[in-house]
Design a protein that fits this description.
alpha+beta, four-stranded antiparallel β-sheet, 30% strand
Length: 99
Protein backbone atom coordinates (compact mmCIF):
# COMPACT_ATOMS: atom_id res chain seq x y z
CA UNK A 1 0.00 0.00 0.00
CA UNK A 2 1.30 3.45 -0.88
CA UNK A 3 0.09 6.93 -0.12
CA UNK A 4 0.36 9.39 -2.98
CA UNK A 5 0.29 13.16 -2.57
CA UNK A 6 0.25 15.58 -5.50
CA UNK A 7 0.51 19.35 -5.25
CA UNK A 8 0.23 22.00 -7.95
CA UNK A 9 -0.66 25.64 -7.63
CA UNK A 10 -1.46 25.33 -3.93
CA UNK A 11 -4.01 22.53 -4.35
CA UNK A 12 -3.03 19.28 -2.63
CA UNK A 13 -4.59 15.96 -3.56
CA UNK A 14 -4.07 12.68 -1.70
CA UNK A 15 -4.82 9.09 -2.62
CA UNK A 16 -4.01 5.63 -1.26
CA UNK A 17 -3.14 2.92 -3.74
CA UNK A 18 -3.57 -0.66 -2.50
CA UNK A 19 -1.79 -3.10 -4.77
CA UNK A 20 -1.61 -5.98 -2.26
CA UNK A 21 -4.73 -7.87 -3.33
CA UNK A 22 -4.70 -10.27 -6.32
CA UNK A 23 -7.42 -8.18 -7.99
CA UNK A 24 -5.09 -5.16 -7.93
CA UNK A 25 -2.77 -6.84 -10.45
CA UNK A 26 -5.07 -5.53 -13.20
CA UNK A 27 -5.02 -1.91 -12.03
CA UNK A 28 -2.86 0.16 -14.41
CA UNK A 29 -1.38 2.12 -11.50
CA UNK A 30 -0.36 -1.08 -9.70
CA UNK A 31 1.17 -2.53 -12.86
CA UNK A 32 3.18 0.67 -13.38
CA UNK A 33 4.25 0.79 -9.74
CA UNK A 34 5.50 -2.79 -9.99
CA UNK A 35 7.57 -1.99 -13.08
CA UNK A 36 9.28 1.16 -11.81
CA UNK A 37 13.02 0.76 -11.22
CA UNK A 38 14.00 0.99 -7.56
CA UNK A 39 16.40 3.85 -8.39
CA UNK A 40 13.45 6.15 -9.09
CA UNK A 41 12.57 6.10 -5.37
CA UNK A 42 16.03 7.32 -4.37
CA UNK A 43 16.86 11.03 -4.27
CA UNK A 44 19.20 12.47 -6.87
CA UNK A 45 22.78 12.45 -5.59
CA UNK A 46 24.06 15.86 -4.51
CA UNK A 47 27.10 15.18 -6.73
CA UNK A 48 24.95 14.58 -9.83
CA UNK A 49 25.32 17.24 -12.54
CA UNK A 50 21.83 18.30 -13.64
CA UNK A 51 20.64 20.71 -16.29
CA UNK A 52 19.14 23.83 -14.78
CA UNK A 53 15.79 23.56 -16.50
CA UNK A 54 12.69 24.39 -14.48
CA UNK A 55 9.77 22.12 -15.33
CA UNK A 56 7.06 23.62 -13.14
CA UNK A 57 5.85 23.95 -9.55
CA UNK A 58 4.35 20.48 -9.20
CA UNK A 59 5.53 18.26 -6.35
CA UNK A 60 4.57 14.76 -5.32
CA UNK A 61 5.35 12.20 -2.65
CA UNK A 62 5.04 8.45 -2.57
CA UNK A 63 5.22 6.70 0.81
CA UNK A 64 4.59 3.07 1.61
CA UNK A 65 5.74 -0.36 0.54
CA UNK A 66 6.70 -1.25 -3.03
CA UNK A 67 7.74 -4.82 -3.84
CA UNK A 68 8.23 -5.50 -0.14
CA UNK A 69 10.49 -2.48 0.47
CA UNK A 70 9.67 0.70 2.33
CA UNK A 71 9.78 3.83 0.19
CA UNK A 72 9.51 7.50 1.07
CA UNK A 73 10.18 9.44 -2.12
CA UNK A 74 9.68 13.06 -3.06
CA UNK A 75 9.41 14.26 -6.64
CA UNK A 76 9.57 17.69 -8.24
CA UNK A 77 10.46 19.34 -11.53
CA UNK A 78 13.11 21.80 -10.34
CA UNK A 79 15.91 20.62 -12.66
CA UNK A 80 16.69 18.14 -15.43
CA UNK A 81 17.48 15.25 -13.07
CA UNK A 82 14.26 15.71 -11.11
CA UNK A 83 12.26 16.07 -14.33
CA UNK A 84 13.64 12.71 -15.46
CA UNK A 85 12.48 11.05 -12.22
CA UNK A 86 9.13 12.86 -12.52
CA UNK A 87 8.51 11.49 -16.01
CA UNK A 88 8.92 7.93 -14.73
CA UNK A 89 6.27 8.31 -12.01
CA UNK A 90 4.04 10.87 -13.73
CA UNK A 91 1.40 8.32 -14.82
CA UNK A 92 0.77 7.53 -11.14
CA UNK A 93 -0.09 11.17 -10.49
CA UNK A 94 -1.75 12.06 -13.83
CA UNK A 95 -5.26 11.14 -12.70
CA UNK A 96 -4.80 13.13 -9.49
CA UNK A 97 -3.62 16.08 -11.57
CA UNK A 98 -6.71 15.88 -13.74
CA UNK A 99 -4.85 14.76 -16.88
Amino acid sequence: MVDLTYSAGGAVKKQTLDCASPAANDKPSCVLLGKLPSAVFKPVSKDQACTMIYGGPETATLKGTVRGKKVDARFSRVNGCEIDRWKQVEPLFAEMAGN
